[in-house]
Protein backbone atom coordinates (compact mmCIF):
# COMPACT_ATOMS: atom_id res chain seq x y z
CA UNK A 1 0.00 0.00 0.00
CA UNK A 2 1.54 3.31 -1.06
CA UNK A 3 0.67 6.69 0.35
CA UNK A 4 1.54 9.60 -1.90
CA UNK A 5 2.00 12.62 0.32
CA UNK A 6 2.25 16.26 -0.66
CA UNK A 7 4.94 18.58 0.68
CA UNK A 8 2.62 20.36 3.10
CA UNK A 9 1.42 16.98 4.36
CA UNK A 10 5.00 15.87 5.01
CA UNK A 11 5.61 19.13 6.91
CA UNK A 12 2.51 18.47 9.03
CA UNK A 13 3.67 14.92 9.76
CA UNK A 14 7.06 16.29 10.82
CA UNK A 15 5.40 18.91 13.04
CA UNK A 16 3.12 16.23 14.52
CA UNK A 17 6.12 14.02 15.24
CA UNK A 18 7.90 16.89 17.02
CA UNK A 19 4.85 17.75 19.15
CA UNK A 20 4.18 14.10 20.07
CA UNK A 21 7.88 13.57 20.79
CA UNK A 22 7.81 16.63 23.06
CA UNK A 23 4.83 15.27 25.00
CA UNK A 24 6.49 11.89 25.44
CA UNK A 25 9.69 13.56 26.62
CA UNK A 26 7.66 15.59 29.11
CA UNK A 27 6.17 12.34 30.42
CA UNK A 28 9.61 11.53 31.88
CA UNK A 29 9.23 14.62 34.06
CA UNK A 30 5.62 14.09 35.19
CA UNK A 31 4.48 10.64 34.02
CA UNK A 32 1.07 10.47 35.75
CA UNK A 33 -0.29 13.77 34.45
CA UNK A 34 1.34 13.77 31.03
CA UNK A 35 0.55 10.15 30.17
CA UNK A 36 -3.08 10.63 31.26
CA UNK A 37 -3.27 13.58 28.87
CA UNK A 38 -1.65 11.41 26.19
CA UNK A 39 -4.24 8.68 26.88
CA UNK A 40 -7.08 11.15 26.22
CA UNK A 41 -5.46 12.35 23.00
CA UNK A 42 -4.74 8.80 21.80
CA UNK A 43 -8.35 7.74 22.48
CA UNK A 44 -9.61 10.78 20.53
CA UNK A 45 -7.30 10.02 17.59
CA UNK A 46 -8.20 6.31 17.67
CA UNK A 47 -11.86 7.28 17.45
CA UNK A 48 -11.39 8.34 13.82
CA UNK A 49 -10.51 4.90 12.35
CA UNK A 50 -12.67 3.04 14.86
CA UNK A 51 -15.76 5.25 14.33
CA UNK A 52 -15.20 5.17 10.57
CA UNK A 53 -15.10 1.36 10.60
CA UNK A 54 -18.39 1.12 12.49
CA UNK A 55 -19.99 3.61 10.11
CA UNK A 56 -18.59 1.75 7.08
CA UNK A 57 -20.08 -1.53 8.30
CA UNK A 58 -23.42 0.18 8.93
CA UNK A 59 -23.30 1.65 5.41
CA UNK A 60 -23.15 -1.89 4.07
CA UNK A 61 -26.04 -3.10 6.23
CA UNK A 62 -28.18 0.03 5.76
CA UNK A 63 -27.30 1.18 2.24
CA UNK A 64 -28.32 4.63 1.04
CA UNK A 65 -27.10 8.01 -0.07
CA UNK A 66 -25.07 8.47 3.11
CA UNK A 67 -22.98 5.43 2.15
CA UNK A 68 -22.43 6.72 -1.38
CA UNK A 69 -21.22 10.03 0.03
CA UNK A 70 -19.00 8.76 2.84
CA UNK A 71 -17.83 5.30 1.79
CA UNK A 72 -14.41 6.20 0.37
CA UNK A 73 -13.69 8.68 3.18
CA UNK A 74 -14.53 5.96 5.72
CA UNK A 75 -12.26 3.48 3.95
CA UNK A 76 -9.48 6.07 4.03
CA UNK A 77 -9.97 6.70 7.76
CA UNK A 78 -9.70 2.99 8.60
CA UNK A 79 -6.16 3.06 7.15
CA UNK A 80 -5.15 5.07 10.24
CA UNK A 81 -5.73 2.03 12.50
CA UNK A 82 -2.02 1.07 12.81
CA UNK A 83 -1.18 4.65 13.80
CA UNK A 84 -3.99 4.61 16.38
CA UNK A 85 -2.59 1.35 17.77
CA UNK A 86 0.91 2.85 17.89
CA UNK A 87 -0.51 5.86 19.78
CA UNK A 88 -1.67 3.49 22.55
CA UNK A 89 1.85 2.09 23.05
CA UNK A 90 2.95 4.84 25.51
CA UNK A 91 -0.19 4.04 27.53
CA UNK A 92 0.73 0.35 27.68
CA UNK A 93 4.31 1.16 28.60
CA UNK A 94 3.35 3.74 31.22
CA UNK A 95 0.20 2.15 32.64
CA UNK A 96 1.81 1.95 36.07
CA UNK A 97 1.84 5.75 36.18
CA UNK A 98 -1.65 6.25 34.76
CA UNK A 99 -3.85 3.69 36.50
CA UNK A 100 -4.35 3.53 40.27
CA UNK A 101 -5.03 -0.23 40.16
CA UNK A 102 -1.52 -1.19 39.03
CA UNK A 103 0.12 -2.78 42.08
CA UNK A 104 -2.96 -2.24 44.28
CA UNK A 105 -3.39 -5.48 46.29
CA UNK A 106 -6.64 -4.31 47.95
CA UNK A 107 -8.75 -5.07 44.85
CA UNK A 108 -11.17 -7.97 44.64
CA UNK A 109 -9.77 -11.29 43.24
CA UNK A 110 -11.58 -10.75 39.92
CA UNK A 111 -10.28 -7.19 39.63
CA UNK A 112 -6.76 -8.43 40.42
CA UNK A 113 -6.92 -10.81 37.45
CA UNK A 114 -8.85 -8.57 35.05
CA UNK A 115 -7.02 -5.34 35.85
CA UNK A 116 -3.46 -6.49 35.49
CA UNK A 117 -1.00 -5.36 32.81
CA UNK A 118 -0.93 -8.49 30.63
CA UNK A 119 -4.72 -8.99 30.19
CA UNK A 120 -5.03 -5.21 29.70
CA UNK A 121 -2.44 -5.27 26.90
CA UNK A 122 -3.97 -8.40 25.34
CA UNK A 123 -7.45 -6.88 25.20
CA UNK A 124 -6.03 -3.73 23.61
CA UNK A 125 -4.11 -5.81 21.07
CA UNK A 126 -7.15 -7.97 20.31
CA UNK A 127 -9.31 -4.94 19.70
CA UNK A 128 -6.85 -3.32 17.28
CA UNK A 129 -6.24 -6.64 15.51
CA UNK A 130 -10.00 -7.15 14.99
CA UNK A 131 -10.37 -3.54 13.88
CA UNK A 132 -7.60 -3.90 11.30
CA UNK A 133 -8.86 -7.25 10.02
CA UNK A 134 -12.46 -6.03 9.65
CA UNK A 135 -11.26 -2.82 7.97
CA UNK A 136 -9.11 -4.84 5.58
CA UNK A 137 -12.03 -7.12 4.60
CA UNK A 138 -14.37 -4.14 4.12
CA UNK A 139 -11.83 -2.24 2.03
CA UNK A 140 -11.18 -5.33 -0.10
CA UNK A 141 -14.99 -5.49 -0.63
CA UNK A 142 -15.04 -9.26 -0.19
CA UNK A 143 -18.03 -10.90 1.60
CA UNK A 144 -18.90 -7.44 2.87
CA UNK A 145 -22.38 -8.15 4.21
CA UNK A 146 -21.14 -11.10 6.24
CA UNK A 147 -18.11 -9.13 7.50
CA UNK A 148 -20.24 -6.11 8.36
CA UNK A 149 -22.83 -8.27 10.16
CA UNK A 150 -20.15 -9.99 12.25
CA UNK A 151 -18.26 -6.72 12.74
CA UNK A 152 -21.17 -4.71 14.15
CA UNK A 153 -21.57 -7.43 16.79
CA UNK A 154 -17.87 -7.98 17.51
CA UNK A 155 -16.60 -4.38 17.59
CA UNK A 156 -19.03 -3.03 20.20
CA UNK A 157 -18.11 -5.94 22.52
CA UNK A 158 -14.37 -5.43 22.11
CA UNK A 159 -14.71 -1.64 22.27
CA UNK A 160 -16.73 -1.91 25.48
CA UNK A 161 -13.91 -3.96 26.99
CA UNK A 162 -11.24 -1.42 26.09
CA UNK A 163 -13.52 1.46 27.17
CA UNK A 164 -13.59 -0.05 30.64
CA UNK A 165 -9.83 -0.69 30.55
CA UNK A 166 -8.68 2.61 29.13
CA UNK A 167 -11.03 5.12 30.75
CA UNK A 168 -13.40 3.65 33.32
CA UNK A 169 -10.56 2.01 35.26
CA UNK A 170 -8.95 5.43 35.78
CA UNK A 171 -11.25 5.34 38.81
CA UNK A 172 -11.38 1.72 40.01
CA UNK A 173 -14.48 2.41 42.14
CA UNK A 174 -16.62 3.79 39.32
CA UNK A 175 -19.00 1.44 37.50
CA UNK A 176 -21.49 2.22 34.75
CA UNK A 177 -23.04 -0.39 32.47
CA UNK A 178 -23.56 2.28 29.79
CA UNK A 179 -19.91 3.35 29.78
CA UNK A 180 -18.94 1.15 26.81
CA UNK A 181 -21.89 2.31 24.70
CA UNK A 182 -21.20 5.91 25.64
CA UNK A 183 -17.57 5.40 24.55
CA UNK A 184 -18.70 3.90 21.21
CA UNK A 185 -21.15 6.75 20.63
CA UNK A 186 -18.34 9.25 21.27
CA UNK A 187 -16.03 7.39 18.88
CA UNK A 188 -18.67 7.32 16.14
CA UNK A 189 -19.39 11.04 16.63
CA UNK A 190 -15.69 11.96 16.38
CA UNK A 191 -15.28 9.64 13.38
CA UNK A 192 -18.37 11.00 11.64
CA UNK A 193 -17.33 14.65 12.14
CA UNK A 194 -13.85 13.84 10.79
CA UNK A 195 -15.33 12.09 7.74
CA UNK A 196 -17.77 14.93 7.16
CA UNK A 197 -15.00 17.52 7.29
CA UNK A 198 -12.82 15.43 4.99
CA UNK A 199 -15.73 14.99 2.57
CA UNK A 200 -16.76 18.65 2.65
CA UNK A 201 -13.22 19.93 2.13
CA UNK A 202 -12.10 17.59 -0.66
CA UNK A 203 -13.69 16.69 -3.98
CA UNK A 204 -17.21 17.32 -5.21
CA UNK A 205 -20.04 18.29 -2.90
CA UNK A 206 -22.12 15.47 -1.35
CA UNK A 207 -25.26 14.49 -3.32
CA UNK A 208 -27.68 15.00 -0.41
CA UNK A 209 -26.07 17.03 2.42
CA UNK A 210 -29.38 16.97 4.30
CA UNK A 211 -28.96 13.21 4.85
CA UNK A 212 -25.55 13.82 6.44
CA UNK A 213 -27.00 16.69 8.49
CA UNK A 214 -29.75 14.36 9.68
CA UNK A 215 -27.13 11.81 10.76
CA UNK A 216 -25.23 14.46 12.69
CA UNK A 217 -28.48 15.39 14.43
CA UNK A 218 -29.09 11.72 15.32
CA UNK A 219 -25.60 11.42 16.81
CA UNK A 220 -26.18 14.56 18.88
CA UNK A 221 -29.46 13.15 20.21
CA UNK A 222 -27.65 9.91 21.12
CA UNK A 223 -24.94 11.93 22.81
CA UNK A 224 -27.53 13.82 24.90
CA UNK A 225 -29.13 10.47 25.81
CA UNK A 226 -25.84 8.88 26.90
CA UNK A 227 -24.77 11.96 28.87
CA UNK A 228 -28.06 12.27 30.70
CA UNK A 229 -29.16 8.70 31.38
CA UNK A 230 -26.13 7.35 33.35
CA UNK A 231 -26.19 10.60 35.36
CA UNK A 232 -29.92 10.12 36.03
CA UNK A 233 -29.53 6.47 37.09
CA UNK A 234 -26.59 7.30 39.39
CA UNK A 235 -28.38 10.37 40.77
CA UNK A 236 -31.43 8.21 41.54
CA UNK A 237 -29.56 5.29 43.11
CA UNK A 238 -27.21 7.55 45.12
CA UNK A 239 -24.40 4.99 45.17
CA UNK A 240 -21.36 6.57 46.81
CA UNK A 241 -18.44 5.73 44.40
CA UNK A 242 -20.46 6.69 41.34
CA UNK A 243 -21.80 9.90 42.86
CA UNK A 244 -18.20 10.81 43.79
CA UNK A 245 -17.21 10.39 40.14
CA UNK A 246 -19.70 13.13 39.22
CA UNK A 247 -18.88 15.18 42.32
CA UNK A 248 -15.26 15.39 41.16
CA UNK A 249 -16.54 17.07 37.99
CA UNK A 250 -18.60 19.61 39.90
CA UNK A 251 -15.94 22.24 40.64
CA UNK A 252 -15.73 25.52 38.80
CA UNK A 253 -13.31 24.46 36.03
CA UNK A 254 -15.01 21.20 35.13
CA UNK A 255 -18.45 22.76 35.36
CA UNK A 256 -17.24 25.35 32.83
CA UNK A 257 -16.04 22.51 30.60
CA UNK A 258 -19.44 20.82 30.95
CA UNK A 259 -21.18 24.06 29.96
CA UNK A 260 -18.83 24.43 27.00
CA UNK A 261 -19.47 20.94 25.62
CA UNK A 262 -23.19 21.29 26.38
CA UNK A 263 -23.42 24.51 24.37
CA UNK A 264 -21.13 23.29 21.56
CA UNK A 265 -23.37 20.24 21.19
CA UNK A 266 -26.73 21.77 22.15
CA UNK A 267 -26.68 24.73 19.77
CA UNK A 268 -25.89 22.54 16.72
CA UNK A 269 -28.62 20.12 17.86
CA UNK A 270 -31.21 22.91 17.80
CA UNK A 271 -29.80 24.39 14.57
CA UNK A 272 -29.96 21.03 12.79
CA UNK A 273 -33.71 20.85 13.43
CA UNK A 274 -34.04 23.34 10.55
CA UNK A 275 -34.03 21.70 7.11
CA UNK A 276 -32.26 24.68 5.53
CA UNK A 277 -29.31 24.33 7.92
CA UNK A 278 -29.19 20.54 7.52
CA UNK A 279 -28.78 20.91 3.76
CA UNK A 280 -26.28 23.80 3.79
CA UNK A 281 -22.66 22.74 3.21
CA UNK A 282 -21.25 25.82 4.96
CA UNK A 283 -23.43 25.24 8.04
CA UNK A 284 -22.59 21.53 8.12
CA UNK A 285 -18.89 22.34 8.08
CA UNK A 286 -19.25 24.83 10.93
CA UNK A 287 -21.50 22.58 13.00
CA UNK A 288 -19.32 19.49 12.56
CA UNK A 289 -16.33 21.49 13.88
CA UNK A 290 -18.45 22.58 16.89
CA UNK A 291 -19.61 19.00 17.55
CA UNK A 292 -16.05 17.69 17.20
CA UNK A 293 -14.84 20.18 19.84
CA UNK A 294 -17.82 19.35 22.05
CA UNK A 295 -16.99 15.64 21.92
CA UNK A 296 -13.29 16.27 22.61
CA UNK A 297 -14.24 18.36 25.65
CA UNK A 298 -16.52 15.53 26.83
CA UNK A 299 -13.55 13.20 26.57
CA UNK A 300 -11.38 15.61 28.59
CA UNK A 301 -14.19 15.84 31.18
CA UNK A 302 -14.18 12.04 31.53
CA UNK A 303 -10.38 11.51 31.54
CA UNK A 304 -8.65 14.47 33.13
CA UNK A 305 -10.27 15.49 36.48
CA UNK A 306 -7.91 15.22 39.49
CA UNK A 307 -4.89 14.93 37.17
CA UNK A 308 -4.03 18.65 37.24
CA UNK A 309 -3.37 21.35 34.68
CA UNK A 310 -0.34 19.48 33.29
CA UNK A 311 -2.62 16.65 32.18
CA UNK A 312 -4.92 19.14 30.42
CA UNK A 313 -1.92 20.70 28.70
CA UNK A 314 -0.61 17.28 27.65
CA UNK A 315 -4.09 16.39 26.34
CA UNK A 316 -4.18 19.55 24.16
CA UNK A 317 -0.61 18.96 22.94
CA UNK A 318 -1.31 15.30 22.12
CA UNK A 319 -4.49 16.27 20.27
CA UNK A 320 -2.50 18.83 18.29
CA UNK A 321 0.29 16.39 17.48
CA UNK A 322 -1.91 13.45 16.54
CA UNK A 323 -4.38 15.85 14.88
CA UNK A 324 -1.58 17.05 12.58
CA UNK A 325 -0.97 13.41 11.63
CA UNK A 326 -4.70 13.01 10.93
CA UNK A 327 -5.00 16.19 8.85
CA UNK A 328 -1.93 15.19 6.82
CA UNK A 329 -2.63 11.50 6.38
CA UNK A 330 -6.41 11.42 5.81
CA UNK A 331 -6.24 13.16 2.39
CA UNK A 332 -3.28 10.92 1.44
CA UNK A 333 -5.24 7.84 2.50
CA UNK A 334 -8.25 9.08 0.51
CA UNK A 335 -6.08 9.42 -2.59
CA UNK A 336 -4.84 5.88 -1.96
CA UNK A 337 -8.44 4.58 -1.80
CA UNK A 338 -9.43 6.46 -4.96
CA UNK A 339 -6.41 4.94 -6.76
CA UNK A 340 -7.30 1.50 -5.44
CA UNK A 341 -10.82 1.79 -6.91
CA UNK A 342 -9.59 2.88 -10.36
CA UNK A 343 -9.14 0.30 -13.14
CA UNK A 344 -5.57 -1.09 -13.02
CA UNK A 345 -4.35 0.73 -16.15
CA UNK A 346 -5.74 4.09 -14.95
CA UNK A 347 -3.85 4.08 -11.64
CA UNK A 348 -1.08 6.61 -11.15
CA UNK B 1 -69.54 11.91 -13.79
CA UNK B 2 -71.22 15.18 -12.85
CA UNK B 3 -71.71 17.18 -16.07
CA UNK B 4 -73.59 20.06 -14.51
CA UNK B 5 -72.65 22.36 -11.67
CA UNK B 6 -69.83 24.86 -11.35
CA UNK B 7 -66.45 23.86 -12.76
CA UNK B 8 -64.02 22.67 -10.09
CA UNK B 9 -60.85 22.13 -12.11
CA UNK B 10 -59.38 21.27 -15.49
CA UNK B 11 -57.23 18.13 -15.51
CA UNK B 12 -54.49 17.23 -17.96
CA UNK B 13 -53.36 13.59 -18.14
CA UNK B 14 -49.72 12.60 -18.75
CA UNK B 15 -48.10 9.21 -19.14
CA UNK B 16 -44.75 9.87 -17.45
CA UNK B 17 -43.64 11.71 -14.30
CA UNK B 18 -41.08 13.66 -16.37
CA UNK B 19 -43.84 15.10 -18.61
CA UNK B 20 -45.91 15.97 -15.54
CA UNK B 21 -42.97 17.77 -13.95
CA UNK B 22 -42.27 19.76 -17.13
CA UNK B 23 -45.97 20.60 -17.45
CA UNK B 24 -46.21 21.71 -13.79
CA UNK B 25 -43.22 24.01 -14.23
CA UNK B 26 -44.61 25.44 -17.49
CA UNK B 27 -48.07 26.09 -16.02
CA UNK B 28 -46.60 27.74 -12.93
CA UNK B 29 -44.37 29.88 -15.18
CA UNK B 30 -47.47 31.08 -17.05
CA UNK B 31 -48.81 32.52 -13.81
CA UNK B 32 -51.32 29.87 -12.71
CA UNK B 33 -51.11 29.69 -8.94
CA UNK B 34 -53.91 27.31 -7.92
CA UNK B 35 -52.35 24.14 -9.32
CA UNK B 36 -52.33 20.58 -7.96
CA UNK B 37 -51.15 17.15 -9.13
CA UNK B 38 -52.22 13.54 -8.59
CA UNK B 39 -49.67 10.77 -9.07
CA UNK B 40 -49.43 7.01 -8.37
CA UNK B 41 -46.23 7.51 -6.35
CA UNK B 42 -44.22 10.44 -4.93
CA UNK B 43 -42.51 12.27 -7.81
CA UNK B 44 -39.17 13.83 -6.92
CA UNK B 45 -39.15 17.58 -7.57
CA UNK B 46 -42.93 17.93 -7.87
CA UNK B 47 -43.19 19.71 -4.53
CA UNK B 48 -40.76 22.38 -5.76
CA UNK B 49 -42.40 22.55 -9.20
CA UNK B 50 -45.81 23.23 -7.60
CA UNK B 51 -44.22 25.55 -5.04
CA UNK B 52 -45.83 23.68 -2.15
CA UNK B 53 -44.34 25.25 0.95
CA UNK B 54 -46.91 24.54 3.61
CA UNK B 55 -45.00 24.52 6.94
CA UNK B 56 -48.05 24.14 9.19
CA UNK B 57 -47.27 20.56 10.29
CA UNK B 58 -43.65 21.20 11.49
CA UNK B 59 -44.75 24.44 13.14
CA UNK B 60 -47.58 22.62 14.92
CA UNK B 61 -45.13 19.90 16.02
CA UNK B 62 -42.81 22.50 17.52
CA UNK B 63 -45.63 24.21 19.41
CA UNK B 64 -47.15 20.85 20.47
CA UNK B 65 -43.74 19.67 21.70
CA UNK B 66 -43.12 22.82 23.74
CA UNK B 67 -46.61 22.76 25.23
CA UNK B 68 -46.31 19.02 26.00
CA UNK B 69 -42.91 19.38 27.69
CA UNK B 70 -43.98 22.43 29.71
CA UNK B 71 -47.24 20.85 30.82
CA UNK B 72 -45.46 17.58 31.73
CA UNK B 73 -42.92 19.46 33.83
CA UNK B 74 -45.47 21.72 35.49
CA UNK B 75 -47.77 18.78 36.22
CA UNK B 76 -44.94 17.12 38.21
CA UNK B 77 -44.09 20.36 40.00
CA UNK B 78 -47.75 20.79 40.97
CA UNK B 79 -48.03 17.18 42.13
CA UNK B 80 -44.85 17.47 44.21
CA UNK B 81 -46.14 20.57 45.99
CA UNK B 82 -49.56 19.04 46.55
CA UNK B 83 -48.16 15.75 47.89
CA UNK B 84 -44.65 16.60 49.15
CA UNK B 85 -42.47 13.47 49.49
CA UNK B 86 -38.89 14.18 50.52
CA UNK B 87 -36.61 11.39 49.33
CA UNK B 88 -32.88 11.12 50.00
CA UNK B 89 -32.50 14.82 50.72
CA UNK B 90 -33.37 15.77 47.17
CA UNK B 91 -35.32 18.97 46.46
CA UNK B 92 -39.06 18.76 45.86
CA UNK B 93 -38.58 20.05 42.33
CA UNK B 94 -36.05 17.38 41.29
CA UNK B 95 -35.28 18.43 37.73
CA UNK B 96 -33.40 15.26 36.59
CA UNK B 97 -36.29 13.04 37.69
CA UNK B 98 -38.85 15.28 35.98
CA UNK B 99 -37.02 15.22 32.64
CA UNK B 100 -38.27 11.76 31.61
CA UNK B 101 -41.98 12.56 31.93
CA UNK B 102 -41.43 16.01 30.38
CA UNK B 103 -39.69 14.32 27.42
CA UNK B 104 -42.44 11.72 26.98
CA UNK B 105 -45.15 14.38 27.03
CA UNK B 106 -43.12 16.49 24.60
CA UNK B 107 -43.19 13.57 22.13
CA UNK B 108 -46.90 13.01 22.76
CA UNK B 109 -47.72 16.70 22.32
CA UNK B 110 -45.69 16.96 19.11
CA UNK B 111 -47.23 13.82 17.58
CA UNK B 112 -50.81 14.73 18.46
CA UNK B 113 -50.34 18.28 17.15
CA UNK B 114 -48.84 16.95 13.90
CA UNK B 115 -51.65 14.46 13.37
CA UNK B 116 -54.37 17.00 14.12
CA UNK B 117 -52.80 19.62 11.83
CA UNK B 118 -52.35 17.07 9.03
CA UNK B 119 -56.01 16.04 9.27
CA UNK B 120 -57.23 19.64 9.38
CA UNK B 121 -54.94 20.78 6.53
CA UNK B 122 -56.10 17.92 4.30
CA UNK B 123 -59.72 18.40 5.37
CA UNK B 124 -59.88 14.81 6.51
CA UNK B 125 -61.85 12.69 7.02
CA UNK B 126 -63.31 13.39 3.58
CA UNK B 127 -65.19 10.63 1.80
CA UNK B 128 -65.50 12.32 -1.58
CA UNK B 129 -63.53 14.71 -3.77
CA UNK B 130 -64.76 16.20 -7.08
CA UNK B 131 -61.77 14.79 -9.05
CA UNK B 132 -62.97 11.26 -8.22
CA UNK B 133 -65.74 11.89 -10.77
CA UNK B 134 -63.28 12.49 -13.63
CA UNK B 135 -63.30 9.74 -16.26
CA UNK B 136 -60.46 7.25 -15.68
CA UNK B 137 -59.20 9.06 -12.58
CA UNK B 138 -58.61 5.68 -10.92
CA UNK B 139 -55.55 5.44 -13.20
CA UNK B 140 -53.90 8.08 -10.97
CA UNK B 141 -53.26 5.16 -8.62
CA UNK B 142 -51.79 3.09 -11.46
CA UNK B 143 -49.75 4.65 -14.28
CA UNK B 144 -51.19 8.08 -15.15
CA UNK B 145 -50.13 11.49 -13.87
CA UNK B 146 -52.71 14.27 -13.51
CA UNK B 147 -52.09 17.99 -13.42
CA UNK B 148 -55.03 20.11 -12.25
CA UNK B 149 -55.67 23.83 -12.59
CA UNK B 150 -58.18 24.46 -9.83
CA UNK B 151 -60.97 26.98 -10.28
CA UNK B 152 -60.75 30.18 -8.23
CA UNK B 153 -62.18 33.69 -8.51
CA UNK B 154 -59.97 34.58 -11.52
CA UNK B 155 -60.42 31.20 -13.24
CA UNK B 156 -61.05 31.23 -16.98
CA UNK B 157 -61.87 27.76 -18.38
CA UNK B 158 -60.75 28.60 -21.93
CA UNK B 159 -57.47 30.10 -20.82
CA UNK B 160 -56.73 27.09 -18.57
CA UNK B 161 -57.74 24.62 -21.28
CA UNK B 162 -55.50 26.29 -23.88
CA UNK B 163 -52.55 26.42 -21.50
CA UNK B 164 -52.89 22.70 -20.75
CA UNK B 165 -53.50 21.77 -24.41
CA UNK B 166 -50.22 23.47 -25.35
CA UNK B 167 -48.43 20.85 -23.23
CA UNK B 168 -49.68 17.97 -25.41
CA UNK B 169 -51.33 15.94 -22.65
CA UNK B 170 -52.94 12.55 -23.36
CA UNK B 171 -56.34 14.03 -22.44
CA UNK B 172 -57.95 17.12 -20.93
CA UNK B 173 -60.86 16.58 -18.57
CA UNK B 174 -63.25 19.12 -17.04
CA UNK B 175 -64.13 18.38 -13.43
CA UNK B 176 -67.35 19.82 -12.08
CA UNK B 177 -68.35 20.14 -8.46
CA UNK B 178 -71.54 18.25 -7.61
CA UNK B 179 -74.41 20.63 -7.04
CA UNK B 180 -75.42 20.59 -3.39
CA UNK B 181 -78.59 18.58 -2.80
Written account of the structure:
With 348 residues, chain A is mainly alpha-helical. Chain A has one domain (7-341). Chain A is 80% helix and 0% strand. Chain A contains 16 helices and no strands. Chain A has helices spanning 7-29, 31-61, 65-78, 81-87, 89-93, 95-98, 109-114, 117-140, 144-166, 179-201, 209-237, 240-247, 252-271, 275-278, 281-303, 308-341. The mean pLDDT of chain A is 93. Chain B has 181 residues and is α+β, with helices and mostly antiparallel strands. Chain B has a domain at 56-121. In chain B, strands 2-3-1-4 form a 4-stranded antiparallel sheet, covered by helices on one side. In chain B, helix 3 packs antiparallel against helix 4. Chain B is elongated, with a radius of gyration of 25 Å. The model of chain B has no long low-confidence stretch (mean pLDDT 90). At the A-B interface, helix 11 of A face helix 4 of B.
What topology does this entry show?
The complex is a heterodimer of chains A (348) and B (181).
Chain A: H1 7-29, H2 31-61, H3 65-78, H4 81-87, H5 89-93, H6 95-98, H7 109-114, H8 117-140, H9 144-166, H10 179-201, H11 209-237, H12 240-247, H13 252-271, H14 275-278, H15 281-303, H16 308-341
Chain B: E1 7-14, H1 17-29, E2 35-38, H2 46-49, H3 56-82, H4 95-121, E3 145-150, H5 157-165, E4 171-176
Helix pairs in contact in B: 3-4
Helical content band of chain A = over 70%
Largest interface: A-B, 6 and 5 residues
Determine the number of helices of chain B (DSSP H or I, runs of at least 4 residues).
Answer: 5
Order of helices and strands of chain A: HHHHHHHHHHHHHHHH
Instruction: Name the poorly predicted regions of chain B.
Output: none
Proportion in helices of chain B: 40-55%
Oligomer: heterodimer
Evaluate the radius of gyration of chain A. Answer: 20 Å
- Category by helix and strand content of chain B: alpha+beta
The major sheet of chain B is characterized as: 4 strands, antiparallel
Unreliable residue stretches of chain A: none
Shape type of chain A: globular
Class per helix and strand makeup of chain A = mainly alpha
Provide mean pLDDT of chain B, rounded: 90
